[in-house]
Design brief:
- By secondary structure, the protein is an alpha/beta fold.
- The protein has 16 helices and 20 strands.
- A seven-stranded mixed sheet has the order 14-15-16-13-12-17-18, sandwiched between helices.
- Strand 15, helix 13 and strand 16 form a beta-alpha-beta unit.
- Helix 3 packs across helix 4.
- It is globular, with a radius of gyration of 23 Å.
- The N and C termini lie far apart (78 Å).
- It binds nicotinamide-adenine-dinucleotide (NAD).
- The site of nicotinamide-adenine-dinucleotide has 29 residues, from helix 8 and helix 9.
Length: 485
Amino acid sequence: MNPTVQPKASHFINGEYVEDKNGTEIPVIYAASGEQIATVHAATPAIVDMALASAKSAQKTWAAMTGTERGRVLRRAADIMRTRNRELSVLETYDTGKPLSETLYVDATSGADALEYFGGLAASLTGEHIPMGQDWVYTVREPLGLCVGIGAWNYPTQIACWKGAPALACGNAMVFKPSETTPLCALKVAEILFEAGAPAGLYNVVQGMGEVGGALVTDPRVDKVSLTGSVPTGKKVYAAAAADMKHVTMELGGKSPLIIFDDADLENAVGGAILANFYSSGQVCSNGTRVFVQKDIKDKFLARLAERLKGAVIGDPQDEATTFGPMVSKAQMEIALGYVEKGKAEGARLVYGGARLNQPGWFMQPTVFADVRDDMTIAQEEIFGPVMSVLEFDTEEEAIARANDTEFGLAAGVFTSDLTRAHRVIGAMEAGSCFINSYNDAPVEAPFGGVKASGVGRENSKEAIKHFSQVKSVYVRMGDVEAPF
Ligand code: NAD
């Protein structure tokens, strides 16, 4: 066990750490060594009930505050997160295995951005006045009530904040369940919000597997569920929430296309493809894992890609010089390595990597397949690991049709120096989050989310407000009521 990593207790409820050792033990394994560094316990029904009851009660106090007051708490939490960025980044690295060279810049910092952005919006969440002759209608933007957040394991701090910040800005309370693979970071988010002045119980964290998630989703006190996870889990959670007509946001998986035309700046296109496949060891939902490269530049693209991949520094993620860390877990590494075998067996050409590293921890090489066909498993299924598929194409029409030929629709990117083509191609993409001559930028100001099987609703930006609030409309009659009888 690592004493700096082991939390005081498994859950954070009503402003304090709470333990119930009757819950199933969840070992926390450090991905870079394979060693157990901490232990938490899954929430028992008593813990789930305590979390929901305290959130329900805190929500009333919170919603009665002004938007300015709520926003001040969120912005204070953002400041605390930034002050503690290094400590939180080290913890994120222990939780996920992602290298410090990433976590110092995109986890607590991105969480702080969300808290600051939604804190800034909280005071301006107003309705409108609609004139109706001498009468009028006014609208009120109201909170939904009690929201449940359920997270995936790739960005535990970011996900806890991306869900919590807009929920709280709108006057809701939240019970958040992190992934059982990465249970540590969300506890810090809860601690910081409480320290920043959030009422006790407003943002609670409970641990557990799918079972605990299921108990939260089906509880009648819950008004909204926001899940980040895989498509199969999304289908189950969406169906369970629908049974009680609960609101949902579903941020699910993808198999996104990145289309590179022969007039693209090659160096930028290769850089974009690296960002789209190997950041966080490929464990990013919006990754552009189907890289369509126009025929004439394919060989040049593959050669330059291989050269640049040699520059990846694979190793100890707590060393700031490391740029490529381990996979989050043994299971996830085995899934990715299984896809590598499938790719080879189905006739794709392995042009880079493909192997597990001979050292402790769950390290595998960044991997590139060329000559991938659309019907191969590695081109159809989300791998969620560092495996890039390069597919060759001839014409723009062909690239668009093949890019869209998937059940998913999370993201899409295009590299070209032809401005009109860039917009035409992105306009035709069946995807929610798109990039032109770039990939995977996700600032809090921009809506984020998918279409088709990749999700419902949007996170970040003003769009997220619509998914954490509801509108009441009030008709005001100034004259007499004319009834028919
Ligand atoms: P997962 O679907 O296995 O689990 C996600 C969360 O759901 C976990 O906390 C899990 O405990 C919980 N869960 C599982 N079954 C449940 C149930 N029946 N009821 C309620 N909760 C349940 O996903 P994962 O392996 O943790 O994460 C990887 C997946 O997440 C990938 O598919 C990836 O694309 C997706 N993801 C999407 C986004 C996005 O924003 N679109 C971001 C990150 C990850």
